[in-house]
Amino acid sequence: MTPNSLPISRLSRLAAEHPDAVTAALCGILVILGSIALQFGWLGLAVLILPAAYVIGGYSSTREGLTTLFQERELDVDLLMIVAALGAAGLGLWRQEYHLIVDGAVLILIFAISGALEGYAMQRTERSIRSLMSLTADTARVVIYGGEREVAIDKLEIGDRILVKPGEIIPTDAIIIEGYSAIDQASITGESLPVEKTTGDEVYAGTINGAGALKLEVHKTPESSLIQRVIRLVQEAQTAAPPSQMFVEKFERGYAKLIVGLGLLMATLPPFVLGWNWEDTIYRALIFLVVASPCALMAAIMPALLSGIANGARQGILFKSGAQLEMIGKVRAIAFDKTGTLTTGKPEVIQIVPATGYTETEVLQLAAALEAHSEHAIASAIVRAAQQQQLQLSTATDVQAKIGQGIVGKVNNQIIAVGKADFVAATSELSEISQQLQAEGKTVVWVAKGDGVPPRKLRLLGIIAVADTLRPEAAATVKRLQKLGVEHIIMLTGDNKQTAQHIARQLGINEVYAELLPEDKVQAIKQLQTQYQTVAMVGDGINDAPALAQASVGIAMGISGSDVALETADIVLMADKLEQLAKAISLGRRAQNIVKQNIVFALSCIVLLLAANFLGNITMPLGVIGHEGSTVIVTLSGLRLLRN
User: Fold this and answer.
1) Quick check: 529 and 488 in contact, CB under 8 A?
2) Measured on CA atoms in the order 516, 518, 523, 525, is the torsion positive or negative?
């Protein structure tokens, strides 16, 4: 590639990536050059340059306007703007007032810039489906006549037996026929801890196998799997046109019809009714089209929303579209996912209760020595707690994991058992405390030692309570939302009812839906929407994606959130700070107020200009100045949202 070709390559890439912005920039340059040419009296050059500005800046709007006119038999503001601009240009040529050609070009330029900005603000990513698809394996390891063969997922049939090795993604919904493992199914159900599963249990596509090898039997077709249903739910929710968008389109076309109809009446009736001459009639009709062009009305909305988006970005709130900034200000109900949203999503040791004669340090130290040999999430939490206390861990030998029960081994020549109460033959000494901890949604791990093999001759050392922990700001955020007037706050989770209700009580949330699959969360959002209309959903996992898409406003956690949740959501809290949610709602309400003020001002200006035109007290230049002035004023008004 030659040096001269590099700028050309960059320009072509820029044009491909930002076509609307490049079009608006070229139109602006040509308008400036055309104006300069007229100032110096170079009429021929100006007449060559300005039509090019019309074509470049107005081509897209003309095409869309004509397409809407001929295919849908509807008028819209795109076509109205072009008619007004061409009317100004035609009048300028007719009366040899060539500055009117510039006025028409400026109208097109403003509309082109507005279109470019709107394109940036409204652009929505479609990668969510691809992210979902990445969770599903392309092939499965099918067991055939004692051997193995890789088979494409879509070729699997009911009754096929497949092998899933430790750490692999489970390729399709199936039933375990051999083996035991802890399955990480947070991506599907939202459960905060891996679920232990063995023969006869169902496993889901897209979940992650733990440390055990599993032999599965396919009991449903791959397209009926839970992950595929999630994909379909996201697709359906994202393709449904929101009511606000339908209202805007209807209003835009109704406005255009009204202006065109009134324009035709102004161009024909005054000579017969008011005794105007035809020249003044056509002049007033063209001024009418100029001043009635809805640029100010359109500028009343997008600059304000774009400013709000920029403001939110500075505060770590990513709005994916201007419509969602406006929508969040209308939210009346909010649904929260639990794991990873209201909680950290990472189990931690909450409490250690030693038996009589032992210390917390001794209980944790011996348990961690054994659990260091396990990959279970609870084991990792116990080891992490020991590391945080900088405890020296002895080496455990003869370590054995007992399926669904716990782990046993030798530490300092003593047998140590860690696991369920029955596994360590726990006495009733700590049973009451254990029941209380379990009632609070915590997982209780029992620790015992002795000279025998479990469950014989073991002496209880103590119990360790492990649980997912609340985000520090969660409770304050719920209170802040209630003070803002959010009418209803609920929790949606795939976790068990006991854990969910305990978390909800701590946060002041009165309504909880627990043990939900992704499609259950969607139904819960739909029920809320029938009662409260505008409903927000806050989540972070794959399992939240359909509900995020169904909600009026989907909000994802930026750091802990999965790729699918981030791509599906309308708003992302980039720093995982829940308190930003209240700021987003406040910003949305400010945006609503400013947009309403701007719309009232823009319509008032149009009415005043139309009245002045009808009374014959306005010229074309004054009409353009009034029109452009109102556009500038509402644009500056929208920029108020840049302030915190």
Assistant:
1) no
2) positive
DSSP 280-325: HHHHHHHHHHHHH-THHHHHTTHHHHHHHHHHHHHTTEEES-HHHH
d(CA 51, CA 92): 13
- The contacts of residue 248 (CB under 8 Å, 6+ apart) are none
The model's pLDDT over 25-78, given as tens digits with 9 standing for 90+, comes to 888 888 889 888 888 888 888 888 888 988 888 888 788 778 877 887 776 666
Both tokens assigned to 99: 């500055």
pTM higher than 0.90: no
Amino acid at 9: S
Residue that the structure tokens 């397209």 belong to = 223
The answer to whether 607 and 615 are in contact (CB under 8 A) is: no
Q: Mention every residue, 6+ apart, whose C-beta is less than 8 A from residue 59.
A: 23
Q: State the virtual CA torsion across 256, 262, 264, 266 in degrees, nearest 10.
A: -140
Instruction: Provide, for the chain, the percentages of residues in helix, strand and coil under a 3-state DSSP scheme, each rounded to the nearest 5.
Output: 55, 20, 25
Task: Give the Cα separation of 132 and 139 in Å (integer).
Answer: 16
Which are the catalytic amino acids?
A: 337
Token pair 């509900």: residue: 547
pLDDT tens for residues 188-221?
655 556 888 888 888 888 788 888 889 999 988 8
Q: Residue 349 has what DSSP assignment?
A: E
Name the residue among 420, 415, 494 with its Cα closest to residue 449. 415
Sorted by sequence, the CB contacts under 8 Å of residue 403 that are 6+ apart come out as 180, 196, 198
Output the CA torsion sign for 13, 16, 22, 27.
Answer: positive
